Amino acid sequence: MSLRISHGTGEGEDPVAALSKFEPLKVVKDSFDLAKLNLAHLGASTVPVDLSLRKDVDFVESVRAFRRWHANYSKERSTGTLIDEFETLADF
Predict the structure, then answer these.
(1) Alpha-carbon gap, residue 52 to 58, rounded angstroms
(2) Would residue 69 count as lying in a domain?
(3) Which residues are CB-contacts of 5 (< 8 A; sequence separation ≥ 6)?
(4) Cβ(72)–Cβ(83) under 8 Å?
(5) Residue 47 — left, alpha, or beta (φ > 0 → left; ψ -120 to 50 → alpha)?
(6) Cβ–Cβ under 8 Å, residues 24 and 39
(7) Which domain of life is it from (predicted)?
(8) Which residue range is the domain that position 61 belongs to?
(9) Has residue 47 been placed in a domain?
(10) How far apart are the two ends of the chain, measured CA to CA in Å?
(11) What is the spatial distance between Cα 29 and Cα 54, in angstroms, rounded to a whole number?
């Protein structure tokens, strides 16, 4: 396990390395707990992803609409700052 943690894999490639990033002292216990859960629920699987929903596109369009709406009410400075932050997130 120490090899997997210290090997320097790419971001998100190794789940053990990802776990060790957040709480390195608990990675062994967490791994055992996850293994026990897996054994207790052998038929469990992840929820299928519906890629047609594209929430990211909806978010970007909503931020643009919010910016257009705010252009008519530009007296609120704090809202403009919030929209700037939303636009930064939408660009991500």
Answers:
(1) 11
(2) yes
(3) 16, 17, 20, 24, 27
(4) no
(5) beta
(6) no
(7) Bacteria
(8) 55-91
(9) no
(10) 33
(11) 36
Q: Which two tokens stand for residue 14?
A: 């190794």
Q: Model's pTM, two decimal places?
A: 0.44
Q: What is the pLDDT of residue 20?
A: 79
Residue 14 phi, psi (nearest 5): -120, 120
What does each C-alpha distance from 65 to 25, 37, 70 come to in angstroms? 46, 44, 9
Residue that the structure tokens 């038929």 belong to: 43
37 pLDDT higher than 80: yes
> What contacts 14, CB < 8 A, 6 or more positions away?
4, 7
Least confident of 5-9, 46-50, 86-90: 5-9
